[in-house]
Amino acid sequence: MTRRRFSVACLQTNLRDDMAANIAQVSALARQAKAAGAELIATPENSGFMGRNAAASLAAGRSEAEHPALAAYRALAHELQTWLLVGSLAVREEGANRNANRSYLLQPDGAIAARYDKIHLFDVDLPSGETYRESNSIAGGDMAVLTPTPFGALGMTVCYDLRFPHLYRGLAQAGAQLLSIPAAFTRTTGEAHWHVLLRARAIETGAFVIAPAMWGDHPAARQTYGHSLIVDPWGRVLADAGEGVGLCMAEIDLAEVDKARAQIPAWNSNTDYASPTSLASGS
Q: Given 118, 134, 248, 256, which residue is catalytic?
């Protein structure tokens, strides 16, 4: 049975190129969130490793069976007896020459409920002079994922996916009530676009947006924006972690999804456009 009301927490981390230290930071924040009453806890993108370059990030990839961060977070979900959305980890499939940037939804017993591989890769040259080529170390996914949870239907996405509204439209039309958008947004793009894009995705779909984010300085002078957000289906920001390492929490009431969609059902229009993705259910 779906819980119509529940508490969600977004963790805001500052991770580097030390996987053991990263796991320790995420775990400590998750325990704080659980102690505060969170029933669903979400971590940012790259919750295992933030490398200084593509080669370092590529080398950090591990198979699911051998991934220390995945094992640690599965054990953490079991310890806390809570649902844990791991924003993403670098996962290397056998024989692959690049990693998948894979998000995981973990059950309270530590089992993997769903997986999603980031579809849209961050290959950009910013006006600030920053250059990013995620495709040098990451292979993009090709399947959108909608998974059932005790908290409603969850559409899983990651970071740069945020800029592609057709993905969220498709998830909403398939029944998503919650959208996860874990991220490591750059400070440059975050200051300009983070809040407005997250609020737009919530408004367009009539869904709650759960967006845990990385914050601070990282190897090779990379800077991330922070401001983990929880946004309701009317576009109201329910919680904003601001700057610094920490967390933010909010109570979700799924009645707000029904209310928003009854008032502005734009997501349910019969007019649709071709999407480059198909939809998978669960893992």
A: 118
64 catalytically annotated: no
Per annotation, catalytic residue among 45, 134, 248, 256: 45
Catalytic one among 134, 159, 248, 256?
159
Give the Cα separation of 248 and 226 in Å (integer). 11
Whether 205 shows a pLDDT value over 80: the answer reads yes
Residues 122, 171, 26: CA angle, nearest 5 degrees: 55
How far apart are the C-alpha atoms of 185 and 190, rounded to whole Å? 6
**CATH homologous superfamily of domain 5-281?**
Carbon-nitrogen hydrolase (3.60.110.10)
Q: How confident is the model at residue 3 (pLDDT cuts 50, 70, 90)?
A: confident
> Does residue 159 have an active-site annotation?
yes
- For residues 186 and 225, the answer to whether their CB atoms sit within 8 Å is yes
Tell whether the model's pLDDT for residue 273 goes beyond 70. no
C-alpha to C-alpha distance for 6 and 40, rounded to whole angstroms: 8
**Residue 10 among the catalytic residues:** no
What's the pLDDT score for residue 247? Answer: 98
